[in-house]
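[Meeting: bench + compute handoff]

Bench side (C.D.) handed over the final construct sequence. Compute side (W.E.) agreed to return the predicted structure before the next meeting so the bench team could plan truncations. Sequence as handed over:
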Amino acid sequence: MKGCFTAALGIAMVVALTCGSRAQTFPVKPVRIVVPFPPGGPSDYAARVISAKLPDLFGQQVVVDNRPGASGMLGIEQLTRSAPDGYTLLIVNTGMLTIFPHLQKKLPFDPFNDLTPITNLIGGPSFLLTHPSVPAKNLRELIALAKRNPGQLTYASASVGQISHMNGELMKILAGIDVLHVPYKGTGPIMPELIGGQVSMTFSTSVDNLQFVKNGRVRMLAVTGAKRLAILPDTPTMAESGLPGFESLNWNGIAAPARTPRDIVERLSREMGRALALADVKERVSAQGNDVISDGPDAFAKFIRAESVKWGRVVKEAGVRLD
């Protein structure tokens, strides 16, 4: 009995030492971060922010690899086919993990079993923008206008299932209004259409579009986060403006393949947390209307599940499907 206990203790010590040694030496070669969207968007931005700081912390090059296509599915395929060794990572976001799984009956991956969450990185609200011809100066007036004119107002989205679409559906559900959804192929065409008055409103995630607010070409009514933004202290949240319970972030985190060793996951999360805590990173992120979110593997996994439940309810109540 004593011999068995001694042997088991010895095995446990060897495993612990092996894991500790592996985490200390990792990485010994470049790390690749797959971005499942084109350059220039929020997911690419998150990858560029973190990849700029990690080489100093890792002592290895960090490569950003854009693999756009199929609403992020091509990037997920790249990850799930990679070895679970921490050298191939994937930027994941709201739509990929918590919205699209509810829109399609068959997916090429399981959002809870095929990925290992590492940490959330960056999150920011959307901005509710309207054309100046819409006679509403705030969200309460917009809701009242929509109730007087059911089906007459329109809102643009980047496509079915994107956060800009889900924000509109959540607003409709909570406010009890009928607003027509106008989906586009990406974010590019939306602002010209809104500025031209072809659509009544949109939920934009780009701080660059605030230039059109400043020059009066569009009007901003609210932000979708839980709190006001430091760069927009006078702009209320949706909840403050008459829709309690409305909270929506366009977040981007990072994940590894399933079965990636826990010690490597913790090392990745720890170093990314150090990078996100740097003052210049926080300032850069804040200037873009976002916040740093550094929560670690367990908290990020819990957050993903909660977001999935929330958006799953919205998808079901709105009756949105892709297949």
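W.E. noted at the follow-up: Residues 127-223 form a domain with the D-Maltodextrin-Binding Protein; domain 2 fold (CATH 3.40.190.10). C.D. will use this when planning the next construct.
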